[in-house]
Inverse folding.
């Protein structure tokens, strides 16, 4: 059984189909049809809902953290122990919520189909910021598409509702909601079981290891932003899933003198602060990774584990010399991330083995790390080419070189020939040009609808040139902002 709050109503579910999304649960099982399906792939934001989780700050203060999610990509099992808020829950005692009033007064709705998603994104923005600036408003709404009203009145609604916000019913009930969430906090393995399909929800790494050993055919579910597409887009059935999002040990970020250890189930939103503080280019790329709704769900371990050749984080992590800790039963092994990827969607992971954590080295003064993403849109788009350069330069000489790319091969991959040309050489234009030529020996990219093979190779070479120019003249940096 799993338990969660539907606004303030306790829901206990056991026999539901584990392949059921939150979107369809709301619409088909509880009659809340305000949440809309636009794309069923997390691109449009019409299905946005907000999920509340109990969080304890470093000072011991308990509060509820509200986050916007795409309900079309969220399986019901991930709600275990949380609070689900949909657009119907905002109206209180016959009065519209302040974010709804702002949308009305600022004329932010026309056909109305996308409006519930915008309202829920604004609600999350209001809850998470006292006086959001324009950049935060753009970030909060970047995952919501409107095809008829335009965005100026919606941004005006964001300013009106967030800059002079008033306490609402959720603030008034916070203590009560905290108590109710504590009362339903999971204490044992949860499960949804419809007879022929099941999803198990472990709470510890040990439980996860035991379950995965018992069900090696199970699909591991973290954020679900990739896995859920198999259900929503390809109409496949997932007979057995194991949801890892309630394993607290795999959601920790720990800082050590020489490294940062990030649990594999840590969301990309939670990774941001740690990675941005150490490597600003990593932070910039996370902003462009996907919409806020996706970053609130997607995990760093999931982005690695799905072994996509165009996943944005692996090239950066490879260039930084990151490692992963793989767990199977009581056995753990540490593997360089670059050795995890073997071939297209083929990895070094053994049966019943899972990624427990990612180890990222701390930055040093000698490092020159930069990352670049080439895509057709600035926000919410997949890379055509993703490049990461990490050179150690001492007294003008390159003493270490790590160059990695995504989108250039069947796997995220280091550019060995390029690195060999750079290593031990002065960092000058002539050496860089030879290294650019060597990229043609490292990669034979494919053509697809994102870019041709010729474009990809030329882009990779030009990004290396861009890296060289920016290090010579840092005042003209335009990092992570390239387009096809």
């Amino acid at each position: 059984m799993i338990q969660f709050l539907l606004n303030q109503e306790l829901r206990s579910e056991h026999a539901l189909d584990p392949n059921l999304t939150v979107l369809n649960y709301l619409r088909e099982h509880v009659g809340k049809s305000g949440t809309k399906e636009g794309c069923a792939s997390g691109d449009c934001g019409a299905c946005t809902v907000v999920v509340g989780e109990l969080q304890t700050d470093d000072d011991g203060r308990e509060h509820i953290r509200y986050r916007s999610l795409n309900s079309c990509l969220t399986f019901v099992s991930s709600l275990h122990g949380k609070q689900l808020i949909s657009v119907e829950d905002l109206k209180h005692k016959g009065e519209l919520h302040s974010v709804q009033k702002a949308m009305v007064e600022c004329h932010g709705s026309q056909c109305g189909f996308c409006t519930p998603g915008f309202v829920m994104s604004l609600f999350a923005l209001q809850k998470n910021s006292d006086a959001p600036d324009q950049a935060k408003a753009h970030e909060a709404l970047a995952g919501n598409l409107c095809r008829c009203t335009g965005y100026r009145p919606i941004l005006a609604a964001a300013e009106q509702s967030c800059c002079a916000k008033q306490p609402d019913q959720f603030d008034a009930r916070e203590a009560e909601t905290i108590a109710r969430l504590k009362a339903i906090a999971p204490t044992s393995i949860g499960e949804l079981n419809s007879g022929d399909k099941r999803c198990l929800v472990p709470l510890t790494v040990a439980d996860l290891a035991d379950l995965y050993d018992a069900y090696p055919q199970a699909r591991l579910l973290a954020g679900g932003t990739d896995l859920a597409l198999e259900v929503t887009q390809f109409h496949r059935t997932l007979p057995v899933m194991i949801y890892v999002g309630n394993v607290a040990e795999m959601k920790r970020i720990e800082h050590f003198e020489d490294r940062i250890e990030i649990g594999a189930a840590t969301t990309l939103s939670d990774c941001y602060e740690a990675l941005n503080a150490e490597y600003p280019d990593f932070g910039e790329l996370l902003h462009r990774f996907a919409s806020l709704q996706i970053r609130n769900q997607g995990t760093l371990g999931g982005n690695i584990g799905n072994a996509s050749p165009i996943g944005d984080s692996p090239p950066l992590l490879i260039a930084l010399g990151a490692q992963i800790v793989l767990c199977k039963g009581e056995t753990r092994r540490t593997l360089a991330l670059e050795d995890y990827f073997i071939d297209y969607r083929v990895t070094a992971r053994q049966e019943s083995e899972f990624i427990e954590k990612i180890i990222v080295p701390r930055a040093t003064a000698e490092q020159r790390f930069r990352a670049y993403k080439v895509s057709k849109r600035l926000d919410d788009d997949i890379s055509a080419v993703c490049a990461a350069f990490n050179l150690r330069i001492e007294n003008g000489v390159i003493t270490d070189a790590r160059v990695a790319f995504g989108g250039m091969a069947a796997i995220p991959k280091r550019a060995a020939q390029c690195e060999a040309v750079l290593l031990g050489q002065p960092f000058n234009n002539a050496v860089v040009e030879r290294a650019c030529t060597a990229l043609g020996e490292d990669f034979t990219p494919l053509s697809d609808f994102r870019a041709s093979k010729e474009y990809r190779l030329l882009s990779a070479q030009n990004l290396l040139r861009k890296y060289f120019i920016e290090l010579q003249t840092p005042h003209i940096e335009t990092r992570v902002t390239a387009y096809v």
